């Protein structure tokens, strides 16, 4: 019997999983993105005001992150993956979209199983093919709607993060100057202490002057050391943000690429299933082997099953992972 459309119609053309267990975007910096969002969300107030430039960019980044969504918000959104309505914030909406993907992939797999079931009637197989068209369209639309929001956030946050890095360079220069001042003050103190040791008891007035100068130098050293250490601690927290921020472009690109791949996969799949349902005769649909060859069942079904399992794993683990990502807020 001739094949009227082509083979392997149900096989996803894009690589939607990375290793059979994770979705394609997960190994490409997604945990670092979550860490960045959390650290920005929990940044101490005084760490944001180390310099005026840093304060301004931290406010801009914090506002953008709050609107995009944070691990804390996701951890608190119980049952988000199966919620009926899409969350407004893109980070949460992404988790919701993966939940919808998981459910759609399971429905797709069930329909494909009907197509190749030996006991299925031609009408059942045609109904299964028709079912997958709207299913694919809805899933495609979920990915398509979220994609520009991820892309817009990526453009904005990468730009702001570059300004953050520039402001941090100023903090680094200030910190270096402060520690240089600490070193200079320590050397001055040691010099005064050396003079005191060399000044004999026959010069009590000179010794008294040196002792007073030493006390003043010690107070000054303690003060500037404390200031430098405070800046070092706050800068360290910000340096952690910089390390995770280096993954922003990679991780957000991976999320956007994944949504594009999902959109394309569903569009191709849905169109092919709808066309097959329209063109195949009852005689052709009565032949399970023919239909299995048309849809590429031996290849397609394991791929959709793997996708459903990977999406399910992401959804089940998402809130746990986000809760583990969240670190105690650094004390100001």
Keyphrases for this structure?
10 helices, rod-shaped, 332 residues, disordered N terminus, disordered C terminus, single chain, coiled coil, mainly alpha, Hemolysin E, Chain: A
Describe the structure concisely for a colleague.
With 332 residues, this protein is mainly α.
Description:
- The chain is an all-alpha fold.
- The chain has a single domain (30-325), classed as Hemolysin E, Chain: A.
- The protein contains ten helices and no strands.
- It has helices at 30-41, 52-68, 71-76, 90-116, 122-198, 204-245, 248-279, 282-285, 288-295, 297-325.
- Helix 2 (52-68) packs antiparallel against helix 5.
- The radius of gyration is 31 Å and the shape is rod-shaped.
- It starts with 29 loop residues before the first helix and ends in a 7-residue tail after the last helix.
- Mean pLDDT is 89; it is low at 1-5 and 328-332.
Sequence-ordered SSE layout with sheet pairings:
Layout: H1 30-41, H2 52-68, H3 71-76, H4 90-116, H5 122-198, H6 204-245, H7 248-279, H8 282-285, H9 288-295, H10 297-325
Helix pairs in contact: 1-6, 1-7, 2-5, 4-5, 4-10, 5-6, 5-7
């Amino acid at each position: 019997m001739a094949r009227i459309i082509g083979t392997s119609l149900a096989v996803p053309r894009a690589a939607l999983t990375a290793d059979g267990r994770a979705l394609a975007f997960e190994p490409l910096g997604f945990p670092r993105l979550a860490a960045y969002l959390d650290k920005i969300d929990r940044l101490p107030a005084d760490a944001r005001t180390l310099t005026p430039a840093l304060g301004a960019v931290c406010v801009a980044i914090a506002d953008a992150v709050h609107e995009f969504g944070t691990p804390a918000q996701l951890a608190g959104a119980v049952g988000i993956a199966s919620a009926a309505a899409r969350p407004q914030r893109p980070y949460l909406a992404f988790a919701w979209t993966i939940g919808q993907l998981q459910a759609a992939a399971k429905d797709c797999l069930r329909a494909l199983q009907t197509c190749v079931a030996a006991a299925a009637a031609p009408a059942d197989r045609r109904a299964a093919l028709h079912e997958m068209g709207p299913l694919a369209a809805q899933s495609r639309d979920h990915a398509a709607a979220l994609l520009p929001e991820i892309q817009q956030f990526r453009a904005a946050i990468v730009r702001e993060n570059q300004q953050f890095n520039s402001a941090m360079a100023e903090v680094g220069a200030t910190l270096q100057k402060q520690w240089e001042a600490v070193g200079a003050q320590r050397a001055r103190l040691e010099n005064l202490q050396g003079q005191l040791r060399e000044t004999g008891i026959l010069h009590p007035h000179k010794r008294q002057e040196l002792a007073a100068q030493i006390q003043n130098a010690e107070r000054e050293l303690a003060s500037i050391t404390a200031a430098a250490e405070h800046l070092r601690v706050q800068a360290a927290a910000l340096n952690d943000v910089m390390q995770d921020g280096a993954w922003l472009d990679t991780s957000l690109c991976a999320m956007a690429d994944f949504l594009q791949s999902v959109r394309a996969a569903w569009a191709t799949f849905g169109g092919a299933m709808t066309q097959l349902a329209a063109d195949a005769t009852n005689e052709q649909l009565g032949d399970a082997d023919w239909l299995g060859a048309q849809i590429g069942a031996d290849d397609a079904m394991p791929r959709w099953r793997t996708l459903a399992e990977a999406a399910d794993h992401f959804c089940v683990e998402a809130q746990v992972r986000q809760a583990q990502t969240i670190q105690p807020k650094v004390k100001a």
